[in-house]
Amino acid sequence: MELGIVDILKILPHRYPFLLVDRILELEPGKRVVGIKNVTFNEEFFQGHFPGNPVMPGVLIVEAMAQVAGVGLLGTVPDPQKKLLYMAGVDRAKFRRPVVPGDQLRLEAEIVALKMRTCKCRARALVNGALCAEAELTSVLVDRP
What we know:
Elements: H1 5-11, E1 23-28, E2 32-38, H2 58-74, E3 83-95, E4 104-115, E5 118-127, E6 130-143
Antiparallel strand pairs: 1-2, 2-4, 3-6, 4-5, 5-6
């Protein structure tokens, strides 16, 4: 199943400038999800990270992986607009190569454990098939205030 930005906005609470998912290419709710993030030079973080050598911050790559995983998880719950996913942990994070303007990040997440309100997934970020980052992410599902 493929989702465009309008569908993503119905699932995730994130908005500009913090929405870091442009499209979902594959979705098996509760199991696996693949999304993309088009990295463009006009994104605000490139102004300071780093002038003359723009590199996407690693924490934002992790956040993009978490948002894609969130689509895979929130797509399984009734009334996803009434829920939030809070990141509860990042384990075994590794950064393999820089992500720069013009790259298209392929973000893959596999949900490996789902217990009550806690979700653990393995996520990877790739550019042209080359691994840029990977991590194990833990999230907690809560009601929106």
